[in-house]
Amino acid sequence: MIRVKVCCIGSVDEAHVAVRLGASALGLVSEMPSGPGVIDEDAIREIARRVPPGVSSFLLTSKRDPEEIADQHARLGTQVIQICDRLADGAHAELRRAVPAAKLVQVVHVTGPESVAEAVAVAPHVDGLLLDSGRPGASTKELGGTGRTHDWAISAKIRDRVDLPVFLAGGLDARNVADAVRSVAPYGVDLCSGVRTEGAIDEVELRAFMASVRRAEKT
Fold this sequence. Notes:
The protein has 219 residues and is of the alpha/beta class. It is 37% helix and 19% strand.
């Protein structure tokens, strides 16, 4: 079964809606240089505390210093650290030592064929990859939530080259997720703007998204 991670959760009520409709993971967005879904740390802590058993809470962080990331994770009580920016060599090992119980998921922004090498290089140091459509090299960094798709053929190559769970993100919605699943065969899919209306979760859109994912599993 393909895991569905609903990102940009803004409140305990939104978390409950996402879980009720089938989400197996929730993304909680801390301070970012750009993009939607950012909430303050008190809200992240409260939502993480209320996540039911069997559902994973992801802390999305733009921090790059391992000690700062570890401190943030400890403050907020999340289960998984989603590292949205690139880290320096050796930083993943340092972070692993600081938070041995946490799962580490590295975001790789699929900008071109060079992203395959980037993913292969970081894979031994983390527990999973999330393939997104940001631009970490932009003057104002885009580290997620862009609403754009990327070249799924490159994502499929990454999936084939790494022995890790791979989440696919970037512009997914009920209309394209089945094609994305068939193209990449990811461990999970991740979405934010594709199931929101005026910034809030749209239950109709999320139900349709879940139905599309389940249909794609059978093909």
